[in-house]
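Practice problem 4.
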């Protein structure tokens, strides 16, 4: 694309992860655990749909072609299908997806599809109600999420599932999850437990590695690796040898993909983060609410990206990051 911008490591800007709310109806331990430390933003501090649409247009002019709607839980944002419709009309947007906990999908799936959404990723970490409740802060039963998945599929949405695997917490669910979603023909992606934010008590000893996950599945259902769909895809893809159904593994702890990362993140209050593990964001809300032109805002975003050097997962792997560094919480920027 002629308007490509590149960072210091020559990575283009291709993907925008747009958080539409910092609220969530779950309290997952690795993302937004229970506690007094979470204050919800007042409505005047959260970007309006007009502001999100404007920012998205600017990002698309700089090379973004994929937009993923995140939260918090994005389906808590009132009238979200309206935003989906508006983003879908932006010339240059090739793909829009939502990442959700699935608890409200049954209600909103048809409306989302009618607004132009075609893909949804649903987070589910266990099929066992007791373990699932332990992980999500006693906020939902498994059936509620599975009903949402079925409703999304019936509405015409392509569904992918995400499972964060923690050793000693839910690793016994790897095989049941793999079998269930193989049978129901939804791609399941296993995610290594990451040290995002500051409050999840992350320890390397709780990471179920990519290889350990593969070994566990291979004992029961042999796999073969398949090619990525595109350069920079975060999940390594595998196919079951006895079917055309596939799984993916996202392994930013043991097998990082920093070298091809093309993702920018904008939080609900309009801060731009250039890495999932960033310690600070850049305030775009002040710019967007000023009288500055799109050109000025575009130049500011370009300058931020041009100076980007983030490669946290590489540095963690090489032992070059401080365990005490302050990082933005996952619940704030949607993973």
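Answer key:
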């Amino acid at each position: 694309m002629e308007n490509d911008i590149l960072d210091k490591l020559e990575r283009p800007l291709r993907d925008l992860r747009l958080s539409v709310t910092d609220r969530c109806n779950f309290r997952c331990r690795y993302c937004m655990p229970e506690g007094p430390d979470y204050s919800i933003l007042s409505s005047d501090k959260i970007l309006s749909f007009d502001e999100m649409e404007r920012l998205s247009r600017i990002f698309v002019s700089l090379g973004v072609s994929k937009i993923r709607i995140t939260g918090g839980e994005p389906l808590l944002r009132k009238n979200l299908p309206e935003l989906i419709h508006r983003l879908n009309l932006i010339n240059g947007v090739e793909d829009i997806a939502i990442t959700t906990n699935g608890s409200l999908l049954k209600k909103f799936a048809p409306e989302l599809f009618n607004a132009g959404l075609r893909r949804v990723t649903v987070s589910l970490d266990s099929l066992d109600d007791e373990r699932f409740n332990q992980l999500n802060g006693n906020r939902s039963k498994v059936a509620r999420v599975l009903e949402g998945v079925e409703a999304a599929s019936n509405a015409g949405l392509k569904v992918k599932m995400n499972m964060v695997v923690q050793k000693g917490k839910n690793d016994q669910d790897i095989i049941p999850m793999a079998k269930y979603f193989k049978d129901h023909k939804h791609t399941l992606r296993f995610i290594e437990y990451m040290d995002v934010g500051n409050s999840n008590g992350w320890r390397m000893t709780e990471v179920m590695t990519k290889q350990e996950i593969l070994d566990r599945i291979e004992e029961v259902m042999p796999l073969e690796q398949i090619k990525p769909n595109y350069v920079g895809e975060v999940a390594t893809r595998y196919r079951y040898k006895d079917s055309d159904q596939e799984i993916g593994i996202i392994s930013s702890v043991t097998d990082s993909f920093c070298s091809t990362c093309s993702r920018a993140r904008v939080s609900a209050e309009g801060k731009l983060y250039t890495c999932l593990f960033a310690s600070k964001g850049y305030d775009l809300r002040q710019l967007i609410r000023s009288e500055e032109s799109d050109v000025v805002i575009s130049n500011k975003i370009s300058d931020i990206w041009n100076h980007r050097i983030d490669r946290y997962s590489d540095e963690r792997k090489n032992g070059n990051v401080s365990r005490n560094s302050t990082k933005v919480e996952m619940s704030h920027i949607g993973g």
